[in-house]
C-alpha cells in the first residue's frame, strides 16, 4: 500500500524518484495488457525525445504508439489543451460544440466527395467498432472480412477481423468473421513466373474461399493502406481498386482504417490519396492516433447517404467521450498545422522517408539478419530473419535483442515481437525529424546491430562475422 507521502508526490514528483522505486511501484500496482513494461520509466517527453527516471535520453523512433506525428509536447498543441481544459473540456454526448463542428468541417473539406459527415470518438478500436456496426446496419448483413496481419483494435468486433493473440482464451469471437491473405510480397505463396508477388491471384483465391464459407450475409471489408503491426506492409499498386471491385460484386461496403497513415505520415495527407490506390473512395473511413497527435481522438467519416440511413434507422453508438470538445480542438489544431505547413511538411516527410529508406538499405548490405525493408514514407519495417541468404525464416529473438540494445543506446525502435507478426522492427518517427536526428538514429541502429549476437555481420569477402 502507498504511504501518504508517496501519494502526495504523485506525477509531479516522479522525476525525483529513482527508476528502481518507480519500477517497483509499477510491478506492484499496474496491470499489464499483453506485454511487459520496458525497464526505463519515462518521466518526460519533448519533441523527438523521451527521458527516463534514470536520466537516459531516448530518441523516439516510433512516435509513441505510432501517434505523435508532430512530436511530443508541440507548443501549439500544449496551448490548445490548456485553453480547452480551461474553457470547454467535456460535454454530454448529445451536445455539440464549435471544436467538433470545426474539425468535422475541416476534415470533410479535405476528403473526397462521398466522405461527407464525421463523428469523433477516443480510440482506433472504438472507431473501427463503430464503422463495423454502421456497415452492418446499412447493409442489413453481418459478415465481415479483414486481412491477415492487420490490426484494428481490441474491441470484440475489431478483434474478429484480425489475427493476433488477443483472440485467444476469451471465448468465441463475433460470428461471421472472415480473413483474406495479407499481401506480403516477402513471404508470398502466390508468385508469377518471374518470382514476383502475384497478389491478384492471391486476392481472388482468398475471395473464392470466403464465398464458400459465407452464409450469404457479407456486409463489409476493413483494410489498412499500410499494415503496420503486420510489419509495415503497403497494399500493392492496384490492390485497393481490385478490393473495391470485389466489394461491389457482392454489394459490400469498403472500410479503410487510417489510424497511422493519415495526416501526412505516409507522404500524402491521407493514404487513400496515394496513386497506388487508384482514386478509390471508401464507404467509411476511420482515423485515430495521428489525428490527435497522440491524444485520445478518433474519427468515423462516411457518406451523406449512409449517415442519413443510420439516422433514420436508429443507429446508436453512445460512449462517454463521443464528440468531446477538448480532443476535437486538439485534432483541429493538428490538422491546421499540417495544412498550414502542407507543402513544406509533407515534402519534408517524403524527403526524410527517402533518407530513412536509403540508410536502412545501406545497413542491410552489412547485416544478414535484415531480410527485407518495406513500407511507405516514414512508415518502414525491417524484417529480422536468421539469414536472408538462406531464406525468410523470422528470428524474433534476435529482433528483440536488437530492439533492446537500441534502447540501451538511446533509440526506441520497437519490434512486433509476436509470431503472427513475423518479428519486424517498425520505424515511424515524428515527421518533424531533422536530417541530423535521422542520421544519428541510423548510426545508432547500426551500432545496435553490431553489438547484438546473431545479427550476422557480413565482411567484405561476403562471409559472416561471428560475434
Summarize the structure.
This protein folds into two domains: 15-73 and 343-465, Aspartate Aminotransferase, domain 1; 76-340, Type I PLP-dependent aspartate aminotransferase-like (Major domain) (Aspartate Aminotransferase, domain 2), CATH 3.40.640.10. The protein contains 14 helices and 19 strands.
Topology at a glance:
Blueprint: H1 4-9, H2 19-29, E1 42-46, E2 49-52, E3 57-60, H3 63-66, H4 75-87, H5 98-110, E4 117-121, H6 124-139, E5 143-147, H7 156-160, E6 177-180, H8 199-213, E7 218-223, E8 226-227, E9 233-234, H9 239-249, E10 253-258, E11 284-287, E12 298-302, H10 304-312, H11 325-340, H12 342-364, E13 370-376, E14 379-384, H13 396-408, E15 411-412, E16 415-416, E17 424-427, H14 435-450, E18 457-458, E19 464-465
Parallel strand pairs: 3-15, 5-6, 5-7, 7-10, 10-11
Antiparallel strand pairs: 1-2, 2-3, 4-12, 8-9, 11-12, 13-14, 14-17, 16-17, 18-19
Which structural traits does this protein have?
467 residues; alpha/beta; Aspartate Aminotransferase, domain 1; 19 strands; four-stranded mixed beta sheet; Aspartate Aminotransferase, domain 2; 14 helices
Overview of this protein structure:
The chain has two domains: 15-73 and 343-465, Alpha-Beta Complex (Aspartate Aminotransferase, domain 1), CATH 3.90.1150; 76-340, Type I PLP-dependent aspartate aminotransferase-like (Major domain) (Aspartate Aminotransferase, domain 2), CATH 3.40.640.10. The protein is built from 14 helices and 19 strands. The protein has 467 residues and is of the alpha/beta class. 37% of the residues lie in helices and 16% in strands. The strands form five sheets. The protein has a seven-stranded mixed β-sheet with strand order 4-12-11-10-7-5-6, with helices on both faces. Helix 4 (75-87) runs antiparallel to helix 11, helix 8 packs parallel to helix 9 (239-249) and helix 13 (396-408) crosses helix 14 (435-450). The longest helix is centred in the C-terminal third of the chain and has 23 residues, at 342-364. The protein has helices spanning 4-9, 19-29, 63-66, 75-87, 98-110, 124-139, 156-160, 199-213, 239-249, 304-312, 325-340, 342-364, 396-408, 435-450, and strands at 42-46, 49-52, 57-60, 117-121, 143-147, 177-180, 218-223, 226-227, 233-234, 253-258, 284-287, 298-302, 370-376, 379-384, 411-412, 415-416, 424-427, 457-458, 464-465. The model is unreliable at 1-15 (pLDDT under 50). This is 2,2-dialkylglycine decarboxylase. One of its GO terms (cellular component) is mitochondrion. Belongs to the class-III pyridoxal-phosphate-dependent aminotransferase family.
Amino acid at each position: 500500500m502507498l504511504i501518504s507521502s508517496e501519494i502526495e508526490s504523485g506525477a509531479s514528483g516522479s522525476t525525483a524518484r529513482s527508476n528502481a522505486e518507480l519500477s517497483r511501484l509499477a510491478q506492484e500496482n499496474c496491470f499489464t495488457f499483453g506485454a511487459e513494461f520496458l525497464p526505463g520509466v519515462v518521466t518526460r517527453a519533448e519533441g523527438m525525445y523521451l527521458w527516463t527516471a534514470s536520466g537516459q535520453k531516448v530518441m523516439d523512433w516510433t512516435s509513441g504508439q505510432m501517434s505523435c506525428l508532430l512530436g511530443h509536447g508541440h507548443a501549439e498543441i500544449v496551448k490548445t489543451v490548456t485553453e480547452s481544459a480551461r474553457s470547454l473540456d467535456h460535454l454530454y454526448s448529445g451536445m455539440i460544440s464549435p471544436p467538433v463542428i470545426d474539425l468535422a468541417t475541416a476534415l470533410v473539406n479535405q476528403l473526397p466527395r462521398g466522405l461527407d459527415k464525421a463523428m469523433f470518438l477516443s480510440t482506433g478500436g472504438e472507431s473501427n467498432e463503430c464503422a463495423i456496426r454502421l456497415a452492418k446496419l446499412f447493409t442489413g448483413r453481418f459478415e465481415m472480412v479483414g486481412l491477415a496481419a492487420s490490426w484494428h483494435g481490441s474491441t470484440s468486433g475489431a478483434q474478429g477481423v484480425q489475427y493476433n493473440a488477443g483472440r485467444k482464451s476469451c471465448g468465441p469471437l463475433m460470428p461471421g468473421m472472415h480473413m483474406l491473405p495479407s499481401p506480403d510480397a516477402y513471404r508470398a505463396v502466390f508468385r508469377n513466373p518471374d518470382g514476383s508477388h502475384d497478389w491478384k491471384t492471391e486476392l481472388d483465391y482468398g475471395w473464392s474461399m470466403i464465398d464458400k464459407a459465407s452464409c450469404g450475409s457479407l456486409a463489409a471489408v476493413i483494410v489498412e493502406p499500410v499494415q503496420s503491426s503486420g510489419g509495415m506492409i503497403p497494399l500493392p499498386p492496384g490492390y485497393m481498386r481490385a478490393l473495391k471491385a470485389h466489394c461491389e460484386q457482392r454489394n459490400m461496403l469498403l472500410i479503410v482504417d487510417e489510424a497511422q497513415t493519415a495526416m501526412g505520415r505516409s507522404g500524402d495527407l491521407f493514404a487513400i490519396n496515394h496513386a497506388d490506390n487508384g482514386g478509390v473512395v471508401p464507404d467509411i473511413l476511420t482515423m485515430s492516433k495521428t489525428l490527435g497527435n497522440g491524444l485520445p481522438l478518433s474519427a468515423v467519416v462516411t457518406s451523406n447517404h449512409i449517415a442519413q440511413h443510420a439516422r433514420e434507422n436508429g443507429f446508436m453508438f453512445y460512449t462517454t467521450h463521443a464528440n468531446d470538445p477538448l480532443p476535437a480542438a486538439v485534432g483541429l489544431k493538428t490538422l491546421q498545422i499540417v495544412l498550414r505547413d502542407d507543402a513544406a511538411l509533407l515534402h519534408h516527410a517524403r524527403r526524410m522517408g527517402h533518407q530513412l529508406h536509403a540508410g536502412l538499405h545501406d545497413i542491410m548490405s552489412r547485416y544478414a539478419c535484415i531480410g527485407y525493408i518495406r513500407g511507405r514514407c516514414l512508415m518502414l519495417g525491417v524484417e529480422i530473419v536468421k539469414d536472408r541468404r538462406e531464406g525468410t525464416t523470422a528470428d524474433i529473438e534476435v529482433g528483440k535483442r536488437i530492439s533492446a540494445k537500441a534502447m540501451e543506446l538511446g533509440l526506441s525502435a520497437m519490434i512486433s515481437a509476436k509470431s503472427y507478426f513475423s518479428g519486424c522492427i517498425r520505424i515511424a518517427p515524428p515527421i518533424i525529424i531533422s536530417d541530423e536526428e535521422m542520421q544519428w538514429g541510423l548510426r545508432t541502429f547500426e551500432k545496435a546491430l553490431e553489438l547484438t549476437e546473431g545479427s550476422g555481420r557480413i565482411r567484405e569477402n561476403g562471409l559472416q562475422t561471428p560475434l
